[in-house]
Amino acid sequence: MTGMERVPMGPPWSLDLIADLHAGVLPPEVAAQLRPRVEADAEAREVLQALDATLEDLQALPPIPMPDDVAARIDAALAAEARPAAPVVSLDEARKRRNRRLGLGGGVLVAAAAAFGVVLAVSPGGKQADTPGDAAPAPTSNSNVSAPLSVRGDNLGAAVGDVLKAQNYGPLETQDRLAGCLQGGGIASTSKPLGISPINLDGKDAVMAILPAGVVGQFRLVVLDPKTCGPDKPEGVLADTTIKPR
């Protein structure tokens, strides 16, 4: 109905029209003319009163909390959305990278050496030395180990983006060990964390776990001391806070 339409005639008035009037969806100029005429009709007035009572009953109902499993799924979806998408790489570029890593860019020399069990090593003087049957030296054990993320205790939220990308239990090793540490802090959680990673909290080695907060759009950050946390050991929980990422 638009303001250019005529005001409906009545009584009798249809239930749909009374409901629209009660809900305030009619154009103001139509509602202003219609309301006194509807309220003057006994039957229509009873319908308005019944709608008022129903609305009051609904407003008096306690809030219905979202089920934990639904909130956890929504939080997991939000966490996945927050993770950066993997870069798109063309097939040709991927093959070039593979070939470079396998040493195929220098021709057939490497392939021939591999066929005869020869390892080519470059000496400091720039000459190549053939050593049949010898294995290449193993890389240093710490060459690919990155330092834990440094986090300040007064700014835990800054680590959320990085921790959400990870599923690294670090020194805790397993989800069962994590569950035991959470239990020690009185935190009941049996589901897989949205993200977990070793961190360095104000100079101290720790592990941060991001859990569903039970409220859509919020995360619960728990920081644990892997050396002291465990069931019945609340001192192992270094931080426990809920945040709402921007």
Low-pLDDT segments, ≥5 res: 104-144
Per DSSP, the total helix count is 8
Taking Cα atoms only, what radius of gyration do you get, to the nearest Å? Answer: 34 Å
Oligomer: single chain
Structural class label: alpha+beta
Distance between the termini: 42 Å
Write down how many β-strands occur, each being a DSSP E stretch of 2 or more residues. Answer: 7
- Major β-sheet, in short? 5 strands, mixed
Order of helices and strands: HHHHHHEEEHHEEEE
Query: What is the 3D form?
Result: elongated
Which range best describes the helical content: under 10%, 10-25%, 25-40%, 40-55%, 55-70% or over 70%?
25-40%
Report the portion of residues in β strands. 15-25%
Mean pLDDT across all residues, rounded? Answer: 76
Query: Order of strands side by side in the largest beta sheet?
Result: 3-4-5-6-7
Transmembrane segments: 102-122
Keywords: Membrane, Transmembrane, Transmembrane helix
Region (Disordered): 127-149
Protein name: Anti-sigma-M factor RsmA
Short synopsis of the structure:
This is Anti-sigma-M factor RsmA. The protein has 246 residues and is α+β, with helices and mostly antiparallel strands. Helices cover 36% and strands 17% of the residues.
